[in-house]
Inverse folding.
């Protein structure tokens, strides 16, 4: 019986027994139709025999007849033998439902005043009993709500398996007041207590048991929580050692199962051999279900994180090797093709005047102009591949040059602004990233925008460099994140995002149809 109810009934019995010297008291409490239970005997000398002769109480709600003459529900005083008076004092809730019955045996006829006091004591106790039941009910609803919240929290907020297990143990101990519990997870075929409370730390640090010998495996077969409080059922070698070296005498064990199979078990231990009630089983079952799903989430999250790390690593290598490849091609073009075209031009130049007078000079000059254009085109290709201006003169000059060249080709009215004084040389990776982003944004403006003008703004503030490329062209409606590369197309914006992300920066893109597009990036200026 609940300790609070026991002590309440004990006090009631003592108070009723004190109404008259040698009075005896017996109180029955109706327990949900399961029959009456004699809970307290306020025995005084001489009244024991009288009490013993009373019929056994039956729960009036159970519908069973006790075979006796007594009306267990009724109130009132009756004379039951030589010198004995019996008072029936029903304990009822405010709606009149009987909660129990107090029977008092008096050695002398009770006065009306004494009866009134007995009634008042019984009513008062009934109010407390009812309030306590309401409190218990409220506590149950709170626990139910808390469990729903907790399962949601586990699923949404916990990122690692360790966090999930620790959180469940804290909930079991702090909110539900279980003093001994453990999360046993399978690791390479062995059960390991990964989070626990109230267990012997030395035991927990060294305990490893083949999974098939654990209680977890036994309950897994049932597929639901099971409890063990019979000594014959409890194999000491499969059980933990509790704080203070005590063995558990009752265990409530729930399997942790996911679609991928069994992960282990959630276990609650007690030092006394006593069954767990339905509320305990409910709490542990709900937590175990939420926990298994959260552990599965944590595993998927971890796999995803590892995959993302690999992808980022791969992207970084790709960008680096792309730059290296461009540098190599640029060098090859410069040293091979470039030199040959320049030599060809010089050769033609040197021989222009040694041509025989009858030779058509105009056709020869036309050939020379084509070779000259080849030289310009080769320089442009080399500069696109590896902007040597960037290496030699830095970002500001390289951007200015890039913008001028493209503005001339596209017929734009171009503006270049540098904000914030003293923008010196930046780490090579930062300069290259800014340059490539501007290059791609200008290429996009040329390919897609049909804009009359463009503006490039470079600025530096609070350890970050920012660059903005603005056009006043057609614009487009899609959000930056929704633009996906397909069949080798639309790689520009994705490459831009990846380059910037690799250096820990941000890209934003604002575009409004018929108003134009603004691409803006910011990058931290940290040395490589
Ligand atoms: N300045 C802009 N004005 C109008 N539309 C733009 C602009 N920049 C990008 N877009 C739109 O966004 C799409 C994606 O651009 P992105 O640079 O990723 O690909 P792309 O330029 O089509 O191809 P790639 O860059 O791979 O050669 C473009 O196809 C275009 O529709
Ligand atoms: Mg592009």
């Amino acid at each position: 019986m609940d300790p609070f109810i026991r002590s309440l009934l004990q006090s009631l019995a003592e108070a009723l027994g004190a109404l008259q010297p040698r009075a005896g008291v017996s109180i029955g409490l109706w327990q949900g139709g399961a029959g009456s239970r004699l809970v307290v005997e306020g025995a005084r000398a001489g009244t024991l025999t009288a009490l013993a002769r009373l019929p056994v109480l039956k729960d009036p709600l159970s519908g069973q007849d006790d075979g006796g003459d007594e009306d267990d529900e009724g109130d009132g005083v009756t004379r039951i033998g030589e010198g004995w008076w019996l008072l029936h004092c029903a304990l009822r809730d405010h709606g009149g439902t009987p909660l129990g019955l107090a029977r008092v045996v008096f050695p002398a006829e009770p006065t009306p005043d004494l009866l009134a006091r007995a009634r008042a004591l019984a009513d008062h106790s009934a109010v407390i009993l009812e309030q306590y039941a309401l409190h218990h009910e409220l506590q149950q609803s709170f626990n139910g709500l808390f469990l729903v919240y907790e399962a949601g929290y586990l699923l949404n907020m916990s990122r690692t398996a360790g966090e999930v297990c620790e959180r469940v143990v804290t909930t079991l101990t702090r909110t539900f007041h279980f003093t001994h519990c453990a999360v046993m997870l399978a690791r390479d075929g062995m059960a390991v207590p990964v989070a626990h409370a109230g267990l012997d730390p030395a035991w927990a640090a060294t305990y490893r048991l083949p999974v098939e010998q654990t209680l977890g495996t036994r309950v897994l077969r049932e597929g639901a929580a099971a409890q063990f409080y019979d000594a014959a059922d409890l194999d000491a070698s499969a059980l933990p050692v509790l704080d203070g070296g005590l063995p558990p005498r009752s265990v409530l064990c729930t399997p942790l199962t996911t679609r991928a199979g069994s992960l282990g078990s959630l276990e609650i231990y007690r030092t006394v051999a006593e069954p767990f009630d339905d509320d305990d089983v409910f709490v542990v079952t709900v937590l175990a279900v939420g926990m298994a799903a959260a552990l599965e989430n944590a595993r998927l999250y971890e796999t995803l994180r590892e995959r993302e790390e690999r992808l980022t690593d791969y992207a970084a290598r790709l960008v680096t090797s792309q730059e290296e490849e461009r540098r190599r091609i640029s060098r090859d073009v410069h040293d091979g093709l470039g030199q040959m075209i320049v030599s060809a031009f010089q050769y033609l130049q040197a021989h222009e005047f040694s041509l025989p007078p009858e030779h058509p000079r105009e056709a020869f000059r036309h050939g020379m102009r084509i070779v000259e254009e080849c030289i310009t085109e080769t320089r442009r290709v080399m500069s696109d591949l590896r902007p040597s201006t960037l290496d030699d003169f830095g970002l500001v000059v390289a951007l200015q040059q890039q913008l001028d060249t493209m503005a001339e080709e596209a017929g734009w009215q171009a503006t270049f602004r540098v904000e914030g004084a003293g923008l010196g040389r930046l780490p090579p990776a930062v300069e290259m990233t800014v340059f490539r982003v501007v290059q791609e944004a200008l290429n996009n403006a040329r390919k897609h925008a049909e804009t009359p003008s463009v503006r490039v703004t470079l600025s530096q503030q609070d350890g970050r460099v920012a660059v903005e490329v603005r056009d006043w062209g057609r614009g487009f409606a899609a959000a930056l994140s929704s633009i996906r590369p397909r069949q080798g197309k639309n790689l520009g914006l994705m490459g831009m995002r990846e380059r910037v992300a690799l250096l820990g920066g941000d890209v934003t893109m604002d575009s409004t149809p018929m108003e134009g597009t603004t691409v803006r990036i910011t990058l931290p200026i940290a040395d490589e």
